[in-house]
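Thread title: Can someone regenerate the structure for this chain?

I was given the following input by a collaborator and told the matching structure tokens would be attached. They weren't. Posting the sequence so someone can regenerate them.
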Amino acid sequence: MQNIIYKITSATEWSKATRTGYFEGSSDDRRDGFIHFSTQHQLPGTLEKHFKGKDDLVLIAFEASKLGPELKWEQSRGGELFPHLYANISVSDALWQRPLINNESGVPQIEEEWFAC
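Best answer:
Regenerated them for you:
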């Protein structure tokens, strides 16, 4: 499995988490009972399917091995295994965060140099 996984959320939700010290997940995460993550390979599809046309987003990187046994790899879109965390996240576990800007089609874009970190 991938060691670095990524969370996409609103900058507002992440800002709230930085004030409290932990992230409880987005409203979609709380509805589903776990925090949704993607691998680097899965990010383009996740951005297109779930975040097209949305603004005020950030991409946050986490080391999967530090999230503990509550991180499960479960089948999702197309039968592919996606990382799902059944716990809150300590903000201090974030490796980095980057703002996401939409392209002309309204899809938030990632920059390849972010993954060289």
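Strands lie at 4-10, 22-23, 35-36, 57-63, 71-75, 81-85, 89-90, 94-102, 108-109.
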